[in-house]
Design a protein that fits this description.
Elements (H helix, E strand, L loop, with lengths): L5 E10 L2 E11 L4 E5 L6 H8 L7 E6 L12 E4 L13 H7 L13 H13 L15 H13 L5 E5 L7 H14 L4 E5 L3 H7 L2 E6 L2 E6 L4
Parallel strand pairs: 3-7, 3-8, 5-6, 6-7
Antiparallel strand pairs: 1-2, 1-4, 8-9
Helix pairs in contact: 2-4, 3-4
């Protein structure tokens, strides 16, 4: 078996006297598709924050291995946060949001190039956002905003894409479009999906990790 992109060993996370995660052992491989499911408060978001490097575990390790052949040493990850964390009043356009996904690949003072803007146009077309590049995010529907944020997450060509409940506040047609995009994306990168939608998990995921009360139980998914 190949070296995992992400390898989690004996992870424990505690806040003061409360243990949120314990004994977590998990691996994510190239072009893997892993769903994190479980009840609210079970530790899914905490695990995602650890994977993204936003939270330091109390015990254990998370080791990332880039497998790109372009000389890069750092595993490149894209992230689509929960809908509720987005400030829709912030004065920024669709194109600016998508372009901001290149921020980790450029020096802080570097301007976006013509190639960057061409790449953003290609990503927006792939996300079905043609003609919306100058629209303020506060004017978008829930589905349009999620596809904009997904464009931001994928423009840097990540090896791992992390999505935290991306179908929240979407209608059925927007969900179907999002899941179609995920089917495409899983061919080029690993996907970690946090979801409460059992049907979406059944349709999309190769593996399921149930995060409930701090522990994780992993099982292969049997599709209908």
């Amino acid at each position: 078996m190949s070296i995992p992109l992400i390898e989690i060993k004996n992870l424990r996370v505690a806040y003061e006297d409360r243990t949120v995660l314990h004994g977590v052992n998990l691996a994510v491989y190239d072009r893997d598709f892993l769903a994190l499911v479980g009840p609210n408060g079970g530790g899914k978001t905490t695990l995602v924050r650890c994977i993204l490097g936003l939270l330091k575990p109390t015990e254990g390790t998370i080791v990332c291995h880039s497998q790109r052949q372009d000389g890069g040493q750092k595993l490149r990850m894209g992230y689509l946060p929960q809908y509720s964390r987005i400030d829709r009043k912030f004065p920024i356009t669709v194109a600016e949001v998508v372009l901001s996904g290149l921020g980790g690949c450029k020096p802080l003072t570097a301007a976006y190039t013509a190639a960057d803007r061409a790449r953003a146009r290609d990503v927006m077309a792939r996300m079905g956002l043609e003609g919306l590049d100058k629209r303020a995010i506060g004017t978008l529907s829930g589905g349009q905003l999620q596809r904009t944020l997904l464009g931001r997450a994928v423009i840097s060509d990540p090896e791992v894409l992390v999505l935290d409940e991306p179908d929240t506040y979407m209608d059925s047609s927007s969900e179907a479009r999002l899941y179609g995009l995920l089917e495409e994306l899983r061919r080029t990168c690993a996907v970690i999906l946090v979801s409460h939608d059992a049907e979406a998990v059944r349709r999309l995921s190769a593996r399921v990790a149930v995060v409930d009360g701090g522990s994780i139980q992993e099982s292969p998914l049997v599709k209908p």
